[in-house]
Specification:
alpha/beta; RbsD-like fold; six-stranded mixed beta sheet; 4 helices; 23% strand
C-alpha cells in the first residue's frame, strides 16, 4: 500500500515515466484530450462530474511527486480574469516561469512528442489548461 498524497495507480505509473523536459497537461473540462494531444500520451480521466475535481487540486497532488521547471497557459482575452492562474501561481514554486501561448501555439506545444501525460479534470473554469515541463530531481 502506497502511503503518500497521490495514490492513483495510472497517474503514478505515468509520472514515473516522465523525465527532465517531459511535459504533462492538466486539462480543464473544455479541452479535447484526444484530438489535441499526442496519440501515444497516457490519458487519465479524473472528470467524473463537472466541478468535482478541480485542476488546482490535481496540480497540488502532482507536485508531491515531481519538480516543475516551467508552465504554460493558453492566453486569454485581456479583460478575462483568470482565477485558475492565480491558484496555480500560489502552488507552483516561485522559480517556475509561466508562459502564455496563443491558442494554436498552446495546442502545438501540447501535441509535442514530449507530452507524455494528459489529465482530464472536472475543472469548469475557462483557460484553466496547464502544461507543465518536468524539472530534474533537486
Amino acid at each position: 500500500m502506497i502511503k503518500s498524497d497521490l495514490i492513483h495507480p495510472q497517474l503514478l505509473c505515468a509520472l514515473a515515466q516522465c523525465g527532465h523536459k517531459s511535459q504533462l497537461l492538466i486539462a480543464d473540462g473544455n479541452y479535447a484530450c484526444v484530438t489535441n494531444a499526442p496519440k501515444d500520451a497516457t490519458r487519465v480521466y479524473l472528470n467524473l462530474s463537472p466541478g468535482t475535481l478541480a485542476a488546482p487540486l490535481i496540480l497540488e497532488k502532482i507536485l508531491t511527486c515531481i519538480n516543475v521547471e516551467s508552465a504554460a497557459l493558453m492566453a486569454c482575452p485581456p479583460d478575462f480574469i483568470n482565477g485558475a492562474e492565480a491558484e496555480y501561481r500560489r502552488l507552483l514554486p516561485a522559480s517556475c516561469a509561466i508562459e502564455h501561448l496563443a491558442r494554436e501555439d498552446f495546442y502545438a506545444a501540447v501535441k509535442s512528442d514530449r507530452t507524455l501525460l494528459v489529465i482530464a479534470s472536472g475543472e469548469r473554469r475557462r483557460f484553466a489548461n496547464l502544461l507543465l515541463t518536468v524539472a530534474p530531481v533537486a
